[in-house]
Amino acid sequence: QVQVVESGGGLVQIGGSLRLSCAASGSIGRLVVMGWHRQVSGKQREMVAESTEGETIHYGDFVKGRFALSRDNAKNMVYLQMNSLKPEDTAVYYCNMRGLDGDYDPISSWGQGTQVTVSG
């Protein structure tokens, strides 16, 4: 089983920055996809940024160059640097890791989420 834990959320002012971190642990074989999604209460979860090993990182249209995803495969970690934050970025941010566990069975693991609140 693979566990995923996010950290780094919090309250920030409009135009401010936050850096989210996500760590995977457990029986890990290979993590191919590492990404961030977000959800506002009552709305569907949406993709913020997603990295597939060896491919270009994809961002949600609303990101518009403000966020940057990075990953550390050796540490099984993924980060999301968020700049120029807006009130509409307020949401619970979830980390998702997909790949293979230690038995090389496919996995898709989600973290518990971290709240990001942007206010003026």
Give a verbal description of the structure:
The protein is an all-beta fold and 120 residues long. It contains no helices and eleven strands. The protein has strands at 2-7, 10-13, 18-26, 28-39, 46-52, 58-59, 67-72, 77-82, 91-101, 106-110, 114-119. The strands form two sheets. Strands 2, 4, 5, 6, 9, 10 and 11 form a seven-stranded mixed β-sheet that branches. It has a four-stranded antiparallel β-sheet with strand order 1-3-8-7, with no helix packed on it.
Number of alpha- plus pi-helical segments: 0
Shape: elongated
Instruction: Enumerate the spans where pLDDT stays under 50 for 5 or more consecutive residues.
Output: none
Fraction of residues in β-strands: over 45%
The structure class reads mainly beta
In which range does the helix fraction lie? under 10%
N-C termini distance: 41 Å
* Backbone CA Rg: 14 Å
Number of strands: 11
Order of helices and strands: EEEEEEEEEEE
Average pLDDT metric: 96
Largest sheet, in brief, is: 7 strands, mixed
Summarize the structure.
The chain contains no helices and eleven strands. The mean pLDDT is 96.
Keyword list:
120 residues; mainly beta; seven-stranded mixed sheet; four-stranded antiparallel sheet; 0% helix; elongated
Write the layout of secondary structure elements.
Elements: E1 2-7, E2 10-13, E3 18-26, E4 28-39, E5 46-52, E6 58-59, E7 67-72, E8 77-82, E9 91-101, E10 106-110, E11 114-119
Parallel strand pairs: 2-11
Antiparallel strand pairs: 1-3, 3-8, 4-5, 4-9, 5-6, 7-8, 9-10, 9-11
